[in-house]
Design goal:
Blueprint: E1 4-7, E2 10-12, E3 18-24, E4 33-39, E5 46-52, E6 59-61, E7 69-74, E8 79-84, E9 93-100, E10 115-116, E11 120-124
Parallel strand pairs: 2-11
Antiparallel strand pairs: 1-3, 3-8, 4-5, 4-9, 5-6, 7-8, 9-10, 9-11
Length: about 130
């Protein structure tokens, strides 16, 4: 059973960068898609970025983070990372890593993922 565990959140000033990591504490991510989602207070959980672990397929990004965030994987450590640059206060949220086997139409949706991490807080403030 795959079990995502996030790390790397924290407090950063506007314009700064953070790198979030997602590692499975159980089985590897092989055969799964890994997605990043975020939830700000009083708002619904929203899609941030996603890609399938295996193969050289597309990485999907929300329009709000395109050009600022990027996903990458490290097969040696079974870790999927989210590099976040140019952070703004609007990026403040709890960030969740999730694993699942979504079809193409659900890879950017919450319902496409069956296993979720506990979340890590990202706060962008001066």
């Amino acid at each position: 059973q795959v079990q995502p565990v996030e790390s790397g959140g924290g407090l950063v000033q506007p314009g700064g960068s953070l790198r979030l990591s997602c590692k499975s504490s159980g089985d590897t991510f092989v055969g799964y898609a890994v997605g990043w989602f975020r939830q700000a207070p009083g708002k619904e959980r929203e899609f941030v970025a996603a890609r399938r672990w295996s193969g050289g397929g597309t990485t999907y990004y929300a329009d709000s983070v395109k050009g600022r965030f990027s996903m990458s994987k490290d097969t040696a450590t079974n870790t999927m990372s989210l590099q976040m640059d140019g952070l703004t206060p609007e990026d403040t949220a709890v960030y969740y890593c999730a694993a699942g086997r979504p079809i193409i139409s659900t890879i950017t949706t919450v319902r496409g993922y069956s296993v979720w991490g506990q979340g890590t807080q990202v706060t962008v403030s001066s």
